[in-house]
Design brief:
It is a single chain. The protein is 32% helix and 23% strand. The protein is an alpha/beta fold. A hairpin with a 3-residue loop joins strand 12 and strand 13. It starts with 5 loop residues before the first strand and ends with a strand. Bound molecules: acetyl coenzyme *A.
């Protein structure tokens, strides 16, 4: 019997309408469009309106992916949501997405916490589920409402992040060349302190003191993250190429996590894939963590940049540290 392989059946995205520009931010904290753009490549980001939550955006992206895959949401047989900004600490966002999309109640639905690498982790799990033969329509969503967990008084972090959601439906390949060719996942907990939210968990439960100390917001050592991102993303990309006996010239598009243009420039130089073959949208959305790869993927597919048969290299790194890479024949 031919082994089952998995492919991306359809992609979708959902972005809030509200745009917050660098100039807008310079009215809140001491910063400037020039500083942010020069250091990161970011010009603006999207902010979700009050009253809406993570699962609203996730469901919108999931529905768009289901429509692109030409399936009804009721056909989805597993829901995986990658996020560090859930609606609530529990239950999982995935079960609310299940409700909002009218997906059957007898299918698994769970969240993955791997920060900016979350979509790649979810894709890898979905790939294994489909190859195992038990699932045929797995919804993987990367979604973040980071505007609700950044400290809007901290210019070191608040300029970097934005809100958004992206999604993909993963199902069996149809015997042609299209499919998820490889995934490689990594983690290094020794750097956990470089990017975290100190309070709100079991180490520092919520108290008035933890709120006063602003410990419920993202804290980051930008230089440490930058160094590890360049090194580990480059290595993960090289591992993906070596594993598949590919040369940099075999890759049609790199769809990498959009954290910082300078990180991607350095990865491009190290791996030997020109920046022109990196799909870039960081200027419009900033860092949307787990949502950034599926948003970029969907934009590139719908704009016609990524075409059927293109060989894609995906790569991401985030808090944990958690990172990984994947090669996909679209
Ligand atoms: N506007 C103006 N000045 C600022 C701002 C700002 N928004 N933020 C920091 N500064 C100041 C600092 O206070 C510091 O001033 P000081 O020297 O007087 O103390 C100075 O700018 C630091 O400048 P640089 O050293 O040039 O900053 P750097 O080049 O390290 O850039 C940055 C900072 C952009 C955060 C960079 O380290 C970075 O991108 N790191 C990666 C972080 C990242 O992407 N995190 C996202 C999550 S993880 C991921 O997705 C990979």
């Amino acid at each position: 019997m031919t082994p089952i392989s998995a492919r991306i059946l359809g992609t979708g995205r959902a972005l809030p309408d509200r745009v917050l520009t660098n100039d807008d931010l310079s009215k809140k904290v001491e910063t400037s469009d020039a500083w942010i753009n020069e250091r990161t490549g970011i010009r603006e980001r999207r902010i979700l309106e009050e009253g809406l939550s993570t699962s609203d955006l996730a469901a919108r992206a999931g529905l768009a992916a289901a429509q692109a895959a030409e399936i009804d949401p009721s056909q989805i047989d597993c829901i995986i949501v990658a996020t560090v900004t859930p609606d609530q600490p529990m239950p999982a966002v995935a079960v609310t997405v299940q409700q909002k999309l009218g997906i059957k109640t007898n299918v698994p639905a769970f969240d993955i916490s791997a920060a900016c690498a979350g979509f790649l982790y979810g894709l890898s799990v979905a790939d294994a589920f489909v190859r195992g033969g038990n699932f045929k329509r797995v919804l993987v969503v990367g979604v973040e409402i980071l505007s609700r967990i950044v400290d809007w008084t901290d210019r070191n972090t608040c300029v970097l992040f934005g809100d958004g959601a992206g999604a993909a439906i993963i199902g069996p390949a149809q015997g042609d060349e299209r499919g998820i060719i490889s995934t490689h996942l990594f983690a290094d907990g020794s750097q956990a302190g470089a990017l975290n939210i100190p309070a709100g968990g079991s180490i520092e439960p919520t108290t008035s003191a933890s709120v006063e100390a602003r410990h419920h917001f993202v804290k980051m050592n930008g230089k440490v993250i930058f160094t590890h991102a360049v090194k580990n993303l480059s290595r993960a990309a090289q591992i993906a190429l070596e594993h598949n006996h590919l040369q940099p010239s075999d890759i049609s598009w790199v769809v990498a996590h959009q954290a910082n243009l300078r990180i991607l420039e350095a990865v491009s130089a190290r791996v030997g894939i020109p920046l022109e073959r990196f799909y870039l949208n960081i200027q419009k959305y900033g860092n949307t963590s787990s949502a950034s790869i599926p948003i970029a993927l969907d934009e590139a597919v719908r704009s016609g940049k990524i075409k059927r048969g293109d060989r894609l290299l995906l790569a991401a790194l985030g808090a944990g540290l958690s990172w990984g890479s994947a090669v996909v024949r679209y």
